[in-house]
Design brief:
Elements (H helix, E strand, L loop, with lengths): L2 H9 L3 H7 L8 H7 L5 H15 L3 H13 L7 H13 L4 H10 L5 H13 L5 H11 L8 H12 L2 H14 L5 H13 L3 H10 L5 H13 L3 H13 L6 H14 L2 H13 L6 H13 L3 H10 L5 H13 L3 H13 L6 H14 L2 H13 L7 H13 L3 H10 L6 H14 L2 H14 L4 H13 L3 H13 L8 E6 L2 E6 L8 H17 L19 H5 L2 H12 L6 E5 L5 H13 L4 E4 L4 E5 L2 E2 L6
Parallel strand pairs: 3-4
Antiparallel strand pairs: 1-2, 1-3, 4-5, 5-6
This protein binds zinc ion (2 copies).
One zinc ion (ZN) binds next to helix 33.
């Protein structure tokens, strides 16, 4: 098949189409062309074809007709002028790139404009990768890239999120002297930030003299999404100081940074700001706000935001349902789910994770199984490993450890480490040594060096008073070279987020903090508190000395907040590890003795301590 007939078949060229379309063309008609073409010299036809493309090709359908027409009237396929306009129109109409590519292969010596158009077309398509290939081919054909080449190329690379290509392109722009252009910097910044290379992103940002909102947003978002929320917030303050007005994107980045840090006060200020900036109607922004309050354990504020929303989508409902469930308000989560169903909204996978979690927390075994069934049957959602995990947790919490094990064995999906860990945790709490060992053997295969599993098993032996086994676990942990995750706790005071680690004495108020910690231990002993030394391994990630017990990072953080906040102010702590049994008990008593509400978000859940009790009902 020659190229011409290949094109014809691609274009479905047949005469009736030309007839039908006659009336649709603006000032030119095919009839007039037809009558004049044989006598007309080729340049005239070419000019007409190009004009048709420029003014009349507003749909893919017309484009093909014009192309077909040009073929019929002998416009050579390799003509660079015709090819250039044709490709430009194909790309502008977002027609398939395979079509543009086919035309491109026929053009003799395409110029820089045509190359750029191809790069642009791929950059804007679903599959941006060939853009870079075209760029390389272009340089190999000795066509010099110009200022229009890079924006599209950078766009393509940032879409494919390949940091290496980004770096390669970065050096090319430096070499060619385009690096200082604002769009080049902005694109590079976006690539680095989106690929998680926040350092390089920040470097590019620092080198920019003219930073627009796009640049600020890219760098702030890069830090916010890559576990560097403090930097994101610092940059936001700089941005405001520089008189750049944030928009919805900035606000969403900031809110997610605050949510990750548990920085409620800062988040509240962003809230005030977004109201002033008129972003109350922006659904993404308000959903991020909901998430912030839920993640900071301030569920009442989340409910208030939800209540005030004029428009809500499934994300809004799901965020609050999950938020209520993980914060220990299972009944309210289920109430909200019922309301959602009444509104005829279709819940999603994550909504059901929240629902099942809520059932598990409330000990609603039958309801949990019923929701699981309805999820599949009524909503057609195929259960994922997370849903099975919730079911195992549901059985475990209810004390049905054996049934939980049977459930795992009969699951249609391969159980992962999280599921075995749930079972191991349940065995520790309900004292099921043999099943605990089975769970542990699976965990050793799946995630051999997870320090938390050593802790759980050691706790299990400790609860059975099998001290030799506890010792063996400790030794094997050292022998296996298990990395201890350093524990830390974050609290927010004033404009800052403070981080405390175990035994940390770097803070200027250290002396007072530790003095208070000693006083607390004495006070708690009067309340019947006995330091739980046998469980010290619960935080093996930290130190294993008895003295260390009083000074786990969350205790230091709480003492710091007791010193620096007015009586009655709630204390919120974000901890990277699980709270140990000793701290849990101590904090319950602190909440009673000091009459403070203490909210701890640990690695897996929330603990709302109040009046000597915790919302987790001592199961975590
Ligand atoms: Zn602890
Ligand atoms: Zn708790």
């Amino acid at each position: 098949m020659n190229l011409s007939s290949k094109l014809s078949s691609l274009l479905h060229i047949h005469t009736p189409m030309l007839h039908v379309s006659r009336n649709h063309f603006c000032s030119f008609t095919f009839t007039s062309f037809f009558s004049t073409t044989p006598e007309n010299p080729l340049p005239h036809v070419l000019t007409k074809c190009i004009s048709l493309l420029q003014y009349c090709a507003s749909s893919k359908h017309k484009l093909k007709q014009i192309h077909a027409f040009s073929i019929r009237h002998g416009v050579p396929l390799h003509n660079p002028d015709m090819g250039k306009h044709l490709i430009f129109t194909i790309v502008s109409l977002s027609a398939p790139m395979s079509y543009a590519h086919l035309v491109f292969t026929m053009i003799r010596n395409p110029n820089v404009f045509t190359w750029n158009t191809m790069i642009r077309g791929y950059a804007e398509s679903q599959d941006p990768k060939p853009a870079l290939h075209f760029y390389r081919q272009m340089t190999m054909s000795c066509v010099e890239p110009d200022t229009h080449t890079y924006p599209f190329l950078l766009k393509a690379v940032s879409k494919s999120l390949n940091v290496r290509e980004g770096e390669a392109l970065h050096s090319v722009t430096i070499k060619n002297g385009f690096e200082s252009l604002v769009f080049v910097r902005n694109s590079l910044l976006h690539i680095y930030a989106a690929c998680g290379d926040t350092e390089s992103a920040h470097k590019v940002f620092e080198s920019m003299t003219d930073r627009d909102l796009v640049a600020w947003n890219s760098v702030i978002n890069g830090f916010a999404l890559n576990g560097r929320p403090n930097e994101a917030l610092t940059l936001f303050r700089e941005m405001s100081a520089n008189g750049v007005e944030p928009d919805g994107f900035t606000v969403v980045s900031l809110l997610s940074a605050c949510a990750e840090l548990g920085a409620l006060e800062l988040g509240r200020r962003v809230h005030v700001y977004l109201l002033k900036a008129g972003l109350r109607e922006n659904l993404h922004v308000v959903n991020a706000l909901l998430d912030l309050y839920a993640k900071c354990g301030s569920i009442r504020e989340a409910q208030q935001v939800f209540g005030e929303m004029e428009e809500r989508n499934v994300v809004s409902w799901t965020t609050l349902i999950v938020g209520l469930a993980v914060n220990g308000f299972g009944e309210e989560a289920l109430e909200l789910f019922k309301e959602m169903e009444e509104q005829k909204l279709a819940p999603g996978e994550i909504t059901f994770v929240g629902v099942l979690y809520a059932c598990s927390h409330c000990g609603m075994l039958d309801e949990g199984f019923d929701y699981f069934r309805r999820m599949k049957e009524e909503y057609g959602i195929a259960p994922r490993i997370e849903h099975y995990g919730c079911m195992v947790d549901l059985l475990s919490r209810a004390g049905l450890v054996k049934q939980a094990y049977e459930y795992i064995q009969n699951m249609p999906v391969q159980p992962n480490a999280v599921i075995w860990r749930t079972l191991l945790g349940a065995c520790t709490i309900h004292g099921h040594l043999s099943l605990g060992e089975i769970a542990r053997s699976h965990l050793l295969k799946l995630e051999p060096k997870h320090s938390g599993d050593y802790v759980l098993l050691s706790n299990l032996y400790a609860s059975e008073r099998r001290w030799t086994d506890v010792q063996t676990i400790r030794k094997s942990m050292l022998q296996d070279g298990v990395k201890k995750t350093p524990g830390y706790s974050l609290v927010e005071l004033g404009n800052r987020v403070y981080e405390f680690t175990m035994g940390d004495r770097s803070h200027p108020q250290s002396q007072d903090v530790y003095a208070l910690l000693e006083k607390i231990t004495e006070l708690l002993k009067l309340e019947g508190y006995v330091p739980r030394t046998e469980n010290v391994l619960a935080d093996i990630e930290e130190e294993e000395k008895e003295q260390a017990l009083s000074y786990h990072s969350e205790k230091v953080a709480i003492a710091f907040m007791l010193l620096n906040t007015a009586p009655g102010t709630p204390i919120r702590v974000m901890k990277n590890l699980r709270v140990c049994a000793d701290c849990h008990m101590a904090i319950k008593l602190i909440s009673k003795v000091y009459d403070r509400e203490i909210v701890i978000r640990d690695r897996s859940r929330f603990h709302h301590f109040r009046g000597g009790k915790c919302s987790c009902k001592d199961y975590w």
